[in-house]
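Risk register update: the risk that structure generation would not scale has been downgraded. Supporting records follow, first protein first.
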Amino acid sequence: MKLSDAGELGLLAELERRGLAQQIEDDVAQVGDGFVVTQDALIEDVHFRLGWISWRDLGWRAAAVNLSDLAASGADPEALMVTLAAPVDTKVEDVVELYEGIAETGVPVLGGDTSRSEQLVLSVTAVGRSTRIPGRSGARPGDALVVTGPLGAAGAAFRRQAFVRPPLRLSEGKELAQHAHAMLDLSDGLAVDAAHIAARSHCRVVVELERVPLSDGAKLQDLGFGEDYELLAAVGKASRFPVIGRCEAGEGVALTLDGEPHELGGWEHFR
């Protein structure tokens, strides 16, 4: 079987089945009491194109996608570790600008590595602490599904051959983590990420698309693009965040638009 057959999710499930990795579908790894770690890599021409994004915004993006995982865990970030692999003709001024973008997040870089590469690769590890991590497995029938902000900005920007800065929802994550039964960040598309909660929590997730707040210029199709990095949470009590659906007994994800079934795409590596 090839990776193109298994897909990213199939590969992760196989590694977990063989006992070679644990909890790798969660947003963070829990190491010790309240200590959390996450890592994401950004690869040129896979996750970004230099002609579509500034070096400063790329730095912000590399940090923000990792801090989004900490936000989904209700964590306070403490440090970033940055590994940079770049072609030898990369300008030092560009690399400095990239690190200035990382610094704008307010989380210090305390180490990392550098290497020569034929294309630009950024790998960031973020560490933090949380007193309560909702995870993805605690949603239950009767829960409301809420989102921390409007969706679709990333997809709308990509249609214009551009990228937008991911939001930082650290304070919102801490607020929701106090009582949410399940929570994750929206990185792969609304349908794909909702399915993670449904699968881990053994429930059916219903999303009413007409209730989903859209970013300026976004279309419904942009909800399948991913990379919005808002938080999606299953909550058992009222909150200040928009309700876009619910959890029921059953399995899988149901997307409806004005009461009728609707389909959205999503992102999965290797496919």
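Supporting record for the second protein:
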Amino acid sequence: MLGHDAASRDRVIAALRQIEAEFPDRNVNVREEISGPIVDALFAPNEAMQKKIASGLTFNFKYTSKIARDFIMARDNPDHVWEPQTTKLLLALAKNAKAAFVAGAYFGDQALPMAQVMKANGGRCYCFEVNATQSELLRANAAANGLDNVTAIERAVWNRSNVQLEMIGEDSHASPREVAAGGRGFSAVTLCDYGKEQGVGEIQVLTIDIEGGEQIALEGAECYLKQPAGKAPSIVFEVHRSYVDWSNGLQNTGVAKYLQGFGYTLFAIRDYQGNVDMGNHPVELIPADACYLEGPPHGFNMLAVKDVALIDLHKWRIVRDVSPKLLTHRDPKLHQPIY
């Protein structure tokens, strides 16, 4: 009932933010166990929302996921939508990029800020998103913000073109799976075939978040991955214990070995999966062989680069023997930024 009145809803959310900051038991995940469920009850599923970030971008989105919830709970004019340090890293990589591929672009939470910084350099951001609702929002948000350098592609990325995929799961957690011959689903394309279609010979940034399909999508980008340092893209992608077996170390996973075979060096990106004000705190990167990975099944983003000089160039910080998961309710020595 409170959710039907915008002013009342805003007051509840403001009070919950204050409670989160002051909650006395730091072992409790207040957002997931207390405040988040209350906020969920204030909104109707798929309710249309709008919010602006500090760069001036305005996002229209629907209340369908934790991404929407955390964005709504953020302060006014935050500097990102989701995952502050990953966004910061992507913007640094995109600043001078002429072409970027974003697989799993959603409503543009990270793709549109990338496109915004790329536009000044004449760069174009190619965004793959098969969810029809999110793809429509992506196009609408790009148009509303004057980002005519965004190409939205409603096709799945895979290691073979002209196959059909289906998505298993809900919204941002839907995972791709190939459909049996003769079945109906989403049309898939390899990134190499798409790039050839569009005349994109080089890409500077490749980011993939497709819930377990990351390695298969990377296999379809081999033409770009085998290019030499200076031409091959920097890659940001998600790994999750539900899809990737890292029991022998992150550096020995299938996706890590695949990328290392092309000369890439891999790092885990320390980040919150949410909207958290990190200010100017530097991006912290953990070498793949120095990650603390204990705990329940979880996921995080990784960076793969051929030129490790990028780390010094962007003043990113190398840290070791800590978790990529930044969490407020776990051991701060493992799960908090290093100050």
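The chain is about 30% helix and 20% strand. On this basis the risk owner (M.S.) recommends closing the item.
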